[in-house]
Amino acid sequence: MNDTKNQNSLDPEAIAAMIRSEEPSSDELLGAKTRVKETLDAAARAQGDVPGAISGCADFATLVPAYLAGSLSEPRRVLVEDHTRSCVACRRVVMAARSNQSPSKARVAARPQAAWIPFAIAASVVLALGTGAWAIRRATPVASVSTVESVEGTLISPSQNALLVKAGAQARGTLRTGRASRAVLTLSDGSHIEMAERSELSVASATSGLTVRLTRGRVLVQAAKQTGGRHLAIVTPDCAVSVVGTVFAVNHGMSGSRVSVLEGEVRVSSGSKTRSLHPGDQTTSRDDLGRVPIQEEVAFSAEHEHWQKLATELQDLRTDLAKAFPTPGLHHDTRLLDVAPSGTVVYGAVPNLSGGLREAWRALAARIDQGGAIATALGPMISSENGRAHLDQAVNLLSDVGERLGDEIALAVVSDASGKVLGPVVYAEARRAHELREFLPSIVTKINTEAGKNVIRLVDDVAALASAHDGATLLVTGDFVAVGFHGDELAAFASAVGGGATLAGSPLAVNVANAYRQGLHDVLAADLQRLIPAGASQADSPPFERLGLLDARGLLIARRVEGDTARTEASVTFGQTRRGVASWLAAPAPLGALDYVSAQATVVAAFAMKEPKAAIQELYTIFPELAGKADQVKSELGFSLDGDLAALLGGDFAIALDGPALPLPALKVIIEVYEPSRLQFAFERLVQKIDAEARAKGEAGFALEGTEIGGTTYHAVRRVGADAIIHFAYDNGYLVVGTDRAVVSRALQTRASGTGLRAAGGLADMLPKDGPLEVSALVYQNVGAALGMSTKPSLGWARGEETRIVMGAYGPAGLAGLDLPAILATLKNRSEKGSH
After folding, report:
1. Is the CB of residue 813 less than 8 Å from the CB of residue 565?
2. What distance in Å separates the CA atoms of residue 75 and residue 54, rounded to the nearest whole number?
3. Do 203 and 215 form a contact (C-beta atoms < 8 A)?
4. Which residues, in sequence order, are bridge partners of residue 716?
5. d(CA 271, CA 249)
6. What tens digit of pLDDT does each residue of 242-261 get?
7. What confidence tens digit (pLDDT) does each residue in 381-435 have?
8. What's residue 391's pLDDT?
9. How far apart are CA 155 and CA 148, in angstroms?
10. Which of 96, 343, 372, 523 is most buried by a 10 A CB count?
11. Contact predicate 398/354, CB 8 Å
12. Residue 60 in contact with residue 80, Cβ under 8 Å?
């Protein structure tokens, strides 16, 4: 029985519970307070400070000069920095004092100068990230005043003893609508917030913009245009919405949050995921929450009829455009390759999508003509008389010509026998050649008449190509039609169509034909050997020769659409074993650095380098001036960048934005290290050197600090009087660098738990299914395309082989899946931003 009792008393959970529940006595608290005061006073005397209690902001203000000069004792420096993080008034005192310093003192906040180039080389990325993080962290929100435009029912201020708030009042703090109530607020930036019943929010202001914290309920936001890099953010407990001017709805309840967009563009961060949304889009904070009609999300609004109509129109337009642009079938062969001239050095082909262009334009124009919400949103850009007329003409011209062409349109860049590039030819097969010949003269006449000069000519006699023409030439030969700007390449094309020399049998043609046999939608191929100027050698192109780029022989890129995503594969072939920069990419290998990157990462780049030391030495050969600077570094610091630093790196690297992008980007860098102790010694020497040079100039010095937590030592490089520049730790043969200690800690936890990106099933689904089981490099993103046309992740990868580099990509389908409403709305939104 006693044994059982003793065992229970040693149970860690029981001990932890006892510690948490134990309350210190008043004597113990007083003793702890006294000991802390004695420690601080002793440290102050040792540093030359005046000891004594710090009872308020006035006392902190007296410490600012010593803090900026770097002479404050370490305990007091920590107290000052902690206080100024939360006290706006004292932070302003520090900023004012820093701006009024003499030139020698002002350099305390400057970046490292030329004498610190080695450190900048070693930590340039994380320095930039740390500086950005410092600036963002300083943007501490403070309460903001809002004007209550209207109230229907009840609006109270819970933070002010449930005080009733009337229309016209200036409100600060938390606001809550009652049952069957509604209120409209105008924020200090001009944005309007419409609150549904039983909704609660507060507004805070920072240098980066306003933040509306929605703790419950629904709001409809009409965000004013933001300037000077500011954003309006709507934050719920499980997501954050960042905008610069748009209309959207946010709903937060016990099950999660839902964001619906009616106009413009918004960025939604939930956990570690970030998405771009456009008109008609909707997202939720949890994957298991279903989509609901946007009409329901705005039904509470006083203008609900307008917003519901816009949501309905957007959905109908999306349906119309999907019908107009169905995904074309795969091409397994083509006549276009058969008639490429023998001198072709670049060949490309894309599907002919002009068949759905007129139908898509009619669908959009019909919405505009109806005078609905879409017409209001897009009217200034499309509905003007001249704009509409030009768009009508362009669409009709492209459609009329495109409907008479085959399923593909090809490009051939042609060279002559000496290797001189003549020019490009764009060509296609005619569905009915005789009909096209009858149709084209009227089109050419119309174009030239509107231009007021002969910008294009129509030729069906090859002999006429010899005559000079300042413009484009449209050639109809056999059952093909081609456009070019010079007679020579068109003559070569006409010869190929008539049975003359073609590209058939060349390495370029063989590679393209093999890609077609596997099925493709788009293809681009180049004969790099023939594109490189004849006689290029080390004598006339030393950098390219030494980089190994002149060894390139061929390039092939093929894209295949699968539903709403696309797979792209490419390869660069070399004439001999890869050398120079081309050889730096290692053979396919496990990218262990990805174990420190979570499956929720936003952007990730990882690669395996064959030999870091050899790469740096190769750079010295290519750029001799770098070798001279490296010798200077070695003489000053006692170690070399190649032999003492690069030699310690294993060649496995990764950099990632892994965590919420708002309000502080969580960036990390992971580097494989063979001998952490030697690398740490080099860092210490480097920081000591920089610190000595800084202090010799009367500037604040640098320090390399270490803190042990849970058996792991977290290091930080700090400039006296400022936040740490970088944070890092060593783990399992890797150096993990982050914007703050929490980022580094999460990276270590990710590897320990086995939940890194390498183990994520979603990543494996995007990787190639043939060949080696590993890749040499990859770039992964989960933030949507630049215009927000897709919110699905995408992946680019590469494999290094002996005489070629094979690459691929998996992501949004691109042209086959264009989201026209999103594109138009984005262009409109960004054009308006540019006008402000």
Report:
1. yes
2. 12
3. no
4. 705, 727
5. 19
6. 886 688 889 988 888 999 98
7. 555 555 666 666 667 677 777 778 888 888 899 988 877 888 888 999 888 778 8
8. 67
9. 9
10. 343
11. yes
12. yes
The secondary structure of 279-307 as a DSSP string is TT-EEESSTTSPP--HHHHTTTSTTHHHH
Give me the phi and psi of 125, to 5 degrees please. -65, -50
- Give the burial string for 57-83 (b: 16+ CB within 10 Å, else e): eeebeebbebbbbbebbebbbebbeeb
Q: What is the pLDDT of residue 45?
A: 57
Q: Tokens 């590897």 identify what position?
A: 751
Give CA 437 to chain center in angstroms: 48
Q: Give the alpha-carbon dihedral of 752, 754, 755, 759, to 10 degrees.
A: 150
- The CA distance from 522 to 474, in Å, is 24
Which residues are bridge partners to 175 per DSSP? 201
| Residue 826 confidence (pLDDT) | 46
Cα 638–chain centre separation? 39
* Predicted pLDDT at 68: 76
pLDDT of residue 818: 35
703 beta partners? 718
State how far the alpha carbon of 409 is from the alpha carbons of 23, 255, 482, 641, in Å. Answer: 80, 50, 10, 52
**How many Å apart are CA 723 and CA 133, to the nearest integer?**
10
Give the E-state strand segments of 121-167 in sequence order.
142-143, 146-152, 155-157, 163-164
Q: Please compute the mean of the pLDDT values over residues 723-745 and round it to a whole number.
A: 90
Highest mean pLDDT among 9-18, 19-28, 51-60, 506-515: 506-515
| Amino acid sitting at position 110 | A
d(CA 490, CA 473): 9
Beta-ladder partners of 807: 570, 798
Give me the phi and psi of 291, to 5 degrees please.
-80, 145
Confidence of residue 143 (pLDDT cuts 50, 70, 90): low
Which residues 6+ apart lie within 8 Å of 191 measured at CB? Answer: 210, 221, 222, 223, 224, 232
Residue in 553, 556, 554 with CA at minimum distance from that of residue 575: 553
Quote the radius of gyration of the chain (alpha carbons, Å): 33
Half-sphere exposure of 279 (CA within 13 A, CB side): 32
CA 776, CA 590: separation in Å to the nearest integer? 8
Pick from 815, 823, 820: nearest CA to 561: 815
List the structure tokens of 264: 């413009």
- Contact predicate 139/663, CB 8 Å: yes
pLDDT band, residue 653 (cuts 50/70/90): very high
Token output for 593: 């650095």
Q: Is residue 548 predicted with pLDDT exceeding 80?
A: no
Q: Are 234 and 241 in contact (CB under 8 A)?
A: yes
Hey, which bits of 710-801 come out as E strands?
Answer: 712-719, 724-731, 734-738, 777-781, 794-800
Q: What angle do CA 314, 285, 282 make, to 5 degrees?
A: 0
Which H or E run includes 110?
Answer: none
Mean pLDDT of 498-523: 88
Could you tell me which residue, 513 or 313, shows the higher pLDDT? Answer: 513
**Residue 340 or residue 356, greater confidence:** 340
**Residue 614 backbone phi and psi in degrees, to 5:** -65, -35
Angle ∠(805,810,812) on CA atoms, nearest 5: 140
Token pair 């001239």: residue: 341
Q: Are strands 273-277 and 266-270 parallel, antiparallel or unpaired?
A: antiparallel
Q: Can you give the pLDDT at residue 436?
A: 81
Here the tokens at position 470 are: 């300042």
Summarize pLDDT for 704-714 with one digit per residue, the tens.
999 999 889 99
Helix, strand, coil in percent for the chain, rounding step 5: 40, 30, 30
List the beta strands (DSSP E) in 63-172.
142-143, 146-152, 155-157, 163-164, 170-171
